[in-house]
Amino acid sequence: MSDKPRVLSLAQPTADSLHIGNYLGALRQWPPLQDQYEAFYGVADLHALTVDVEPAVLRKRCLASAAQLIAAGVDPTRSAVFLQSHVPEHTQLMWVLSCLTGFGQASRMTQFKDKSARHGSDAANVGLFNYPILMAADILLYNADRVPVGEDQRQHLELTRDLAQRFNARYSPTFTVPEPHIVRSVGKIMDLQDPTAKMSKTSSSPNGVVDLLDEPKLNAKKFRSAVTDSGRDIVFDEQNKPGVANLLIILAAFTGRSVEDLVEGFAGKGYGDLKVAAADAAGAEVTPFRERTLELLGEKTELEQILADGAEKARAVASRTIAKVYRKVGLLRRG
Ligand code: TYM
């Protein structure tokens, strides 16, 4: 075991592909953290059961998600790359934490609130209600110090911190209180068709979501048909020109240039130029990423072996935590 601090993050396999919001906001931050941290990166397949999904589709998405983590640069020889369901301690800890979570506090989680408000409380299942508590268990099980995620996970991180502190105060210091690692500039990538809504796997407008595994040509087309704003000048104004601002943010992220610098360079040019530049910059990074993912998916046995090894590494830590937690709350060891 290493004495480095720990980093952990998971992504849900709720679509056939991750999108550039997931990539810029989260995934791309993961590989550089592998140097200073002991890293645990995984696929939240149990979380994905909160939405109705065909079993065969879920199986495919789990492997595709794992392959995308590796294609993004997560190195399985250094990090534990695993499927959440391969480590049963996640659900064991979730139960203990759910007994420490107020019903009111869980009801205030916006994801559950939005979904039950939109579709009625029966459309949102109890799994969705428990979702943030399972996420807290994912994090606390490994005593993660840092959790690289997008802005939409901030509230869940707050709950996680709260539960860690509550457990520590009630029993004795046990859990590390984790820090979210949210990169402000890319923490919330917006939908290309509706730049006032975040890009999301469940978006109603597939043209607004750039999937990492889609044909590069299709993605370039999505950029070209991105909704922009009235006016003609390329300026960064998130309030009044959210479409242009989003394209500038995406272009800045993929080129490593600052938004100010880009705006200067686009003086006298039009929205069409910005769209083409964003499409080209995204394509240059995403196309090799896609090829690498498809290659990994062609080596299914190797990929499954990576996940088996990752689960073993993860379980070595998780089983110790759950034993400690069970003991502290007063559960007897099996004799
Ligand atoms: P998920 O699968 O929805 O998204 C994976 C990661 O992508 C980020 N993200 C975005 N970032 C920027 N702009 C966007 N439009 C955008 N959309 C998504 C998410 O914030 C996330 O970091 N609950 C988590 C999965 C999870 C998890 C965990 C994360 C389960 N257990 C433990 C961290 C630690 C989720 O649904 O992410």
Chain-wise SSE layout:
Layout: E1 6-11, H1 20-25, H2 30-33, E2 38-43, H3 55-71, E3 80-83, H4 89-98, H5 103-107, H6 110-119, H7 126-140, E4 146-148, H8 154-170, E5 179-181, H9 216-224, H10 242-255, H11 259-265, H12 271-298, H13 300-329
Parallel strand pairs: 1-2, 2-3, 4-5
Bound molecules: tryptophanyl-5'AMP (TYM).
Please tell me about this protein's structure.
With 335 residues, this protein is mostly helical. Helix content is 51%, strand content 7%. The chain contains 13 helices and 5 strands. A 3-stranded parallel β-sheet has the order 1-2-3. Helix 4 packs parallel to helix 13, helix 7 packs across helix 8 and helix 10 crosses helix 12. The structure holds tryptophanyl-5'AMP. The site of tryptophanyl-5'AMP (TYM) has 24 residues, from strand 1, helix 1 and helix 7.
| Percent of residues in helices | 40-55%
Task: Give the cofactors and ligands.
Answer: tryptophanyl-5'AMP
CATH architectural type of the largest domain: 3-Layer(aba) Sandwich
Overall form: globular
Strand-residue proportion = 5-15%
The first-to-last residue Cα distance is 28 Å
> How would you spell out the order of helices and strands?
EHHEHEHHHHEHEHHHHH
Low-confidence stretches: none
Average pLDDT reading: 96
